[in-house]
Design brief:
Number of helices: 8
Radius of gyration: 20 Å
Structural class: alpha+beta
Order of helices and strands: HEHEEEEEEEHHHHHHEE
Number of strands: 10
Shape: globular
Strand order of the largest sheet: 1-6-7-5
Number of domains: 2
CATH superfamily of the largest domain: MutM-like, N-terminal
Largest sheet: 4 strands, antiparallel
Helix content: 25-40%
CATH class of the largest domain: Alpha Beta
Distance between the termini: 27 Å
CATH architecture of the largest domain: Alpha-Beta Barrel
Oligomer: single chain
DNA sequence: AACTGTCCCTGCAAGC
DNA sequence: TGCTTGCAGGGACAGT
């Protein structure tokens, strides 16, 4: 499922393949994908526009357009962005198609594909960001885009109650971590999902900050994680490889890579499947 | 204010 | 074999 590393990989793909291209045609096949502002705003806002940048904040991709408006793409659970030559057979659930004006004799299309339709494509005036995308202002620190270290993490966690894993999943605390990377980070940090913030020594916070940066950076380098359902692929259709480095996620019942002594256990925390080593994570 | 549980949706795998 | 059921989960929202 797309979390920060997968979204960053898609962002880089958009940056290299779509930024600088003028949009000559727009198709919206399923209105649910554009539910926030509606079909007309998306078509009218994108037609004739050129993407001038592709940024990311948490799991949100934000592109500036030369018209002054912005394009936001959120993949949620099953969203994919693909670029293919015009005329290529589109996969099922291709809900938004942007035709990119001819270049070097080739016409390409950017597809937004999303079987489960949780994802979104939004076009909006940045002057109205607070009304259209109020959640953007509430996003916490992005460990890759923003300056991120133990002090920043300590500040983000200050005053927070409850278990550590739900806090890592809370986009208002740290933006971009989802279920897979939360489990991977906690295993590397030797911390169990139910630890509370006030039980963490300064040394543990330092380690946690280091592991957040490390795991996300390494996962970006690996092109993200593609699970068995192979939902996630990058803009060229390639799978990621970080799943080969997963230490706990999806390894229930298998031996812990760190201690080799006990099996990875799985419980449900905050409605999410959670894998951990009962020996290495305290 | 900040926490937890429910819902949205489809594809896939397990079980009868 | 072919159906039903459960599971996957990001984030908004309602309820506490």
């Amino acid at each position: 499922m797309p979390e920060l590393p997968e979204v960053e990989t898609v962002r880089r793909g958009i940056e290299s393949r779509v930024v600088g291209r003028r949009i000559s045609h727009v198709e919206v096949g399923r209105e649910r994908s554009v539910r926030r502002v509606g079909k007309e705003a998306v078509i009218h806002g994108l037609l004739g526009a050129t993407l001038v940048s592709a940024r990311r904040r948490g799991k949100y991709i934000l592109c500036d357009l030369d018209t002054g408006e912005q394009l936001m793409i959120h993949l949620r659970m099953s969203g994919r962005v693909l670029v293919e030559k015009a005329g290529t057979k589109r996969p099922p659930h291709t809900h938004v198609v942007l035709t990119l004006a001819e270049r070097d004799g080739v016409i390409e299309e950017m597809w937004f594909v999303d079987p489960r339709t949780f994802g979104e494509v939004v076009v909006f005036d940045p002057a109205h960001t607070a009304e259209v995308l109020p959640e953007l202002a509430r996003l916490g620190v992005d460990p890759i885009v923003d300056e991120f270290n133990a002090d920043v993490l300590a500040r983000a966690l200050r005053g927070r109650r409850g278990a550590l894993k739900p806090l890592l999943l809370n986009q208002h605390v740290v933006a971009g971590i989802g279920n897979i990377y939360a489990d991977e980070i906690l295993h590397l940090a030797g911390l169990r999902w139910n630890r509370t913030v006030d039980s963490l020594s300064r040394k543990k916070i330092n380690e946690l900050a280091t592991h957040i940066s490390e795991v996300l950076t390494q996962a970006i380098e690996a092109g993200g994680s593609t699970l068995q359902d192979t939902q996630y692929v990058d803009i060229e259709g390639n799978v990621g490889s970080f799943q080969e480095n997963h230490r706990v996620y999806g390894r229930e019942g298998q031996g812990c890579i760190t201690c080799g002594k006990v099996s990875i256990r799985r419980v449900i925390v905050a409605g999410r499947s959670t894998s951990y080593c009962p020996r290495c994570q305290k």
